[in-house]
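Handout, tutorial session.
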Amino acid sequence: MVEPLEILARQEGAFEIHITAPKMSVDDAEAMFFKFLRIGFPKHKYFLAVNNVPSSLVPYAAGTPPTGHDIEQPGIMATVLAHSYDNVKKLVLEAMTLVEHQCLKGNFEIERIISERVSDFKGINIERDFPGFIASDLAPLYENHFMYRGKQDSLPTHDAIIDYIQKIFGITPNQIVDFSREAVVLPNPLISRVATVYQPSREEVLRFANLMQRFSKRSDDLKYPANYSILTEQVCLVGEPIN
């Protein structure tokens, strides 16, 4: 069954907000998720694995920063979609206040789901809109996401995904992240596995999205992990507390 938020995430022009906090006890995480839910964040996930992929002989996209805008030891993430920038500001500030009250140092990401029909968003002024926060200078400008969801034993491995993207697209993904909706991971859990390619420009992220669409439902070799979902985003802001 497709989650409602995953259906909404295909709506072009929507803002996707991620609030990330460090690892904590299960009880503390569940309490934090409940607080997020009360202010309007319906989707919650635990980080299972964060794989910052080395480029080796196949390069990353030219003109992109190194992986490094994430918090150290990310543990949980709350996500919501918003359709106005005023609502984005309200949700981010309320959520980051909750994180701060727990004496935790988290961060937030504001991304916009784009296509050729959706223009970039350029209306953010961090000093005015998010006082007390600074922008990460390691955040990419755009991202292409290869998204897989299923039981662990049915998903392609990280190595298979890396090999596929390198051979088919001639580029190395910057990062692969595994998420779970459950705090205690049972054998063969249900996983969301997301491989991300950083991109330097709107033109390049949209060009790459078209290539992804062409290959998403086909595979000349059964070991290649086709049948992925696609998400194309402008990274509007990655913010973190000044202190």
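The second record follows below. Compare its token runs with those of the first.
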Amino acid sequence: MAKFKIKVTVKAQCDYEVEVDHTSEANAEDEATSLWREKMPEDFQVEKGYVTDWEVETEQLTADCPGCGVEHPILTNDTPVCHCGQFGHNPYAGTPENPDGRAPLRPHLIVNGVCTPEPWWWDDNEYCAACGAKMEAEEKANG
């Protein structure tokens, strides 16, 4: 009868989602992975030494405005938005990137079924809308 040497690798996966506040994506991911003991179901028993890999997907939900330091929500894949155009211009219409002016209108929030101005700046969502509008006004004033 033949002999076989067989290496069997047992893999188990359990996913969890958390929201953490940090100044960088890397630090947020470090904190999220460190919560594995608390977030795993009680019957998922594994020692950290057996964990060989972490796979993380991160999505930034808020930003601290570099202009004023205020934290504000930013546009994400799950943000309920509308493009009806009632809150200002289409910033891309008639620009060199879009000379025909046919870009979609800028997105704004839908809160409880009602269109609401977006809290982020359309050109750079790291900035809040107020600081972005101030920067745009300064650019126009300085030509």
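Points raised in discussion: Residues 60-142 form one domain.
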